[in-house]
Amino acid sequence: MPDTLQAQGFNDAQEESLRIISAEPQNNEQISDEELRPDTLDTFIGQPQLKAQMKLFLDAAQLRGVAPDHILLAGPPGLGKTTLSMIVAHELGVPIRVTSGPAIQHAGDLASIVSSLEEGEVLFIDEIHRLPRAAEELLYIAMEDFRVDVMVGKGPGASSIPLTLPRFTVIGATTREGMLPSPLRARFGFTAHLDYYPTSELEKLILRSADVLGIHVDTEAAYELSLRSRGTPRVANRLLRRVRDWAIVHGLTEVNADAVRDALELYQIDSEGLDRLDIAVLNAICRQFNGGPVGLNNLAAMVGEESETVETVCEPYLVREGFLARTPRGRIATGKAWSHLGLTPPNDVTSLF
Ligand SMILES: Nc1ncnc2c1ncn2[C@@H]1O[C@H](COP(=O)(O)OP(=O)(O)OP(=O)(O)O)[C@@H](O)[C@H]1O
């Protein structure tokens, strides 16, 4: 009988802690994301190269007195794509219309949005890689020729009337740049890739968010939080809120490093930002499979999770942080994983890394 997570008592309350380190927004988090969004490039923390490029790009458009070219923002969830698009509109002093690939079901939905845009307006399309095909084709023409063809009538008598659109700027955001068809990708004049944030920048971000939320957080506490934030602003802000709750309940007026450690221990987030599922995965590879290699399905069965969850929720961070390696024969635990678990790798395993 496999030693699964359920068998180890991985219950709903513990699953809750899984979601704390997820980079995806949860429940009503869009609302709490809003209050922490910086609204200028100067207050947007980190990504220095991207900010410098973006500033030049926007300044040039403003000096030329035209709407900037279309912008593609690519990168993992929670790194600030939506925030940057709001900043672009704010810096240009123009309104922004927000939609997303999954919200547009028919080409007509997109036609009605683009045909109601004002001159210079920003159209933000989140998850642009999920637009339906017909909408994508309509978008090609709208982006390139600022035109939309409106179909009148049905069947053989149908005809299309071209409607000229004002110049506007599309900002597309995607977590899956590779899924964008190349004709769509080619229509963006500027593509920005967002990277995971180093801890030094997450610290600044946490101190800024603490200020906005009216919490006193000392620098050591900000550092401890940044270590556990998986390089992701959304995770940093979420952990900060959970630590704030802990501080309120414990009657603290200032959050210090001990409060961060104690609060996050309660949520089963360790010093490297690994949660219970990450640890279960590493434990399974080291203890049950002698360090690997082990196939994804076996591994997922061992921890009692869907393969997809293991692959998309745990692995990217474990691989990025050097705890786990993917090889053609399966997943292997690295030396860092063994030492993080306080285990000694067997001799025949050390040759694998
Ligand atoms: N560079 C930054 N400086 C300050 N706060 C940031 C930064 N990047 C992101 N944030 C904050 O992190 C949260 C998540 O950011 P945002 O919604 O922009 O991410 P996203 O990349 O659009 O995520 P998704 O792909 O899930 O839509 C927001 O509260 C935002 O204010």
From TrEMBL:
It comes from the Bacteria. Residues 198-268 are annotated as: Small ATPAse domain (RuvB-S). DNA binds at R326, R331. Residues 271-353 are annotated as: Head domain (RuvB-H). GO terms for cellular component: cytoplasm; Holliday junction resolvase complex. Its EC number is 3.6.4.-. It is found in: Cytoplasm. Homohexamer. Forms an RuvA(8)-RuvB(12)-Holliday junction (HJ) complex. HJ DNA is sandwiched between 2 RuvA tetramers; dsDNA enters through RuvA and exits via RuvB. An RuvB hexamer assembles on each DNA strand where it exits the tetramer. Each RuvB hexamer is contacted by two RuvA subunits (via domain III) on 2 adjacent RuvB subunits; this complex drives branch migration. In the full resolvosome a probable DNA-RuvA(4)-RuvB(12)-RuvC(2) complex forms which resolves the HJ. The RuvA-RuvB-RuvC complex processes Holliday junction (HJ) DNA during genetic recombination and DNA repair, while the RuvA-RuvB complex plays an important role in the rescue of blocked DNA replication forks via replication fork reversal (RFR). RuvA specifically binds to HJ cruciform DNA, conferring on it an open structure. The RuvB hexamer acts as an ATP-dependent pump, pulling dsDNA into and through the RuvAB complex. RuvB forms 2 homohexamers on either side of HJ DNA bound by 1 or 2 RuvA tetramers; 4 subunits per hexamer contact DNA at a time. This is Holliday junction branch migration complex subunit RuvB. It comes from Alloscardovia macacae. The lineage of its organism: Bacteria, Bacillati, Actinomycetota, Actinomycetes, Bifidobacteriales.
